[in-house]
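I am still getting used to backbone structure tokens and would like to learn alongside you. To get us started, please write out a protein record for me. Start from the sequence, derive the backbone structure tokens from it, and show both lines together. Once you have written the record down, we can walk along the chain together:
***
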Amino acid sequence: MKKSFDYKKKMNKNRSNVTKRVAGLTLAVSIGVAIPVAPATLSSADPLGLTNSVVVNAAEVTDLLDHHDVLTSTYAGDSTDQSYSNYTLRNTANPTVAINLDTDYIYTVKFPDELAYLLNNDQIVDTIKNQFDFSGKVVGNDGEPESFTSNNYDPAPYVTINHATNSVEFNITEFHKGYNLTPYTEKRPYTDVYETYMFRMLMTTDYQEIAQGDYIFHIGLTEGSVDLDAVSNARVETLTVESGPVNTPEDPVDNENQDTNEDPDNETDQELDLDSDNDDNLDSNEDSDNETDQELDEDSDDDDNLDSNEDSDNETEQELDEDSDNDNNLDSNDDSDNETDQGLDGDSDNDDNLDSNDDSDNETDQGLDEDSDNDDNLDSNDDSDNETDQGLDGDSDNDNNLDSNDDSDNETDQGLDGDSDNDDNLDSNDDSDNETDQGLDEDSDNDDENKLPDTATSTWKYGMAGAIALLCGIATQIIGRFKRTE
């Protein structure tokens, strides 16, 4: 069975203790007032230091929490979908005084100056208020201690922003009054502190909004709203941010002008350019490149003229042609081709003359003949054919002579005989027939030689047969004699 708790007896005991403290303080003040005040010239020489100690003790403000080192920490993390970042401060501590409803006890988290801007963001402030956690113990209806959390009693209505001190403040007294709760004022067994409070402040920002670095926060519980910079024993917690943009140190300010760089001008250049012009680069002119141009060309190429390419002319050409003509190609003339022509030919072919084809003459040939004659074909002579004739024959056949046929002679043959003899037929001899005789027979027969008549041929055949028969008879006689001798 639970022991009955006499709440009225406990409250009377507390009032008795308060009365004794007030009486003691009144006595101390009376003694202080009764002491004669020394002249101003001797006040700093008080050997006991009584005057100074009274003033210091009256002005001193201390943190009224005993913080748990292991259970007090900070954390910085990013969401897995890279949509936001969370920064959390957890603090577990025990009050060193009994919380009562006659004093405003304020729990404060002071932001570093470099993060004070976050407290001007309504979305971030709403997150801080709505996600603020506070838990501990109160006196239950039965007089026994009863635990509570933010799920039971929402602390958000009692969280405020103090812009004067860059702080988040939580009014513990108003929290108890608002929910009609009675603070639990029993000390923990064998200690001089009271039941544990747990605080959590969660801050959500855009993804990696806070730059990398270490940020110092101060934490404390005081009577009334206090700037924790004036509280000597306020808890110090460091929030370390390892992911996010990198802070760059500010440029040193020189003594000559009002900008933040070391150049001799008064311009707020984006970089250290060390000159007196109005741009952000190392040259001494006002264009957007980094070149020491001879004139003010106001572009970012490497030449000294007003166009936006690197050639030596002043034309706004469509490409980088690096010459001083008025076209957009790499040659040094004004024609539309890309050839380094010797003359100004004004066309787009690959030669150096005024016609519009690729040959080496100056004629407006109808075809692409690539030679220097006056006709429109691919050979190098002035005839009308397409053959590379050795001479100037002025005709359209396929040979190199002055006649109008395809043979290799210089005769005006009546037919196309294709040879170099003096007749008009297709064979290669001078006879009057059209046979391809092997020799020059100068006759009109169908053979290839100068042969004898048929009668002479028959006589020669008979003579040869008789001579052969005679030789055979002589051989028979000789063989017969050898046989008889044996």
